[in-house]
Design a protein that fits this description.
mainly alpha; 6 helices; single chain; 69% helix; two-stranded antiparallel ribbon; 2 strands; globular; 195 residues
Amino acid sequence: MNLPNRITLARIFMIPLMLVFLLLDLEWWSYGLTLGNYSLPVNQLLGAVLFIVAASTDGIDGYIARKHNLVTNLGKLLDPLADKLLVAAVLIALVAMGKCDAWIAVIIISREFAVTGLREVALLEGSVIAASKWGKAKTITQIIAISALLLNNFPFEWIHFPFDQIAIWLAALITIYSGIDYFVKNKNVLNFSKM
């Protein structure tokens, strides 16, 4: 197994550990960083750090694979799967923590399933649907929004600016738009006359 695939697998293996930090209720974890009105429990800080590290490996594994000609079919399968598992797991944890509305998580996760299904149908038809600029924008806004929610709106909480809520709404809107964009641009894949 090559280095990019190992990095991708490491991203997948970070997910359960991150969920332990975010969801396991231990009394000492409620202590943490407190600065004025801002506070961040130690478990949430550890979960946020793991999420940011895991999310940053997405670009690293792809870069290494392309630069050193290490692109494999396994990597093509694992990389998008790792991204979807990471985002879905953390969104579900944020809903459980009361930091994200369930409907936003459902929209984002549903879009991921829908576009993955579209890509699978395209593969069966012998074509590949490449990532679009809106798909990349979706990923970036989701990572920023989730990071802000995990960090309790740091540093914007000090000036009482709801950046985390604005960011998650923006991520949801871009997620919806990017999903529509994929289906409109690839409507030929869904040839209902063959069904």
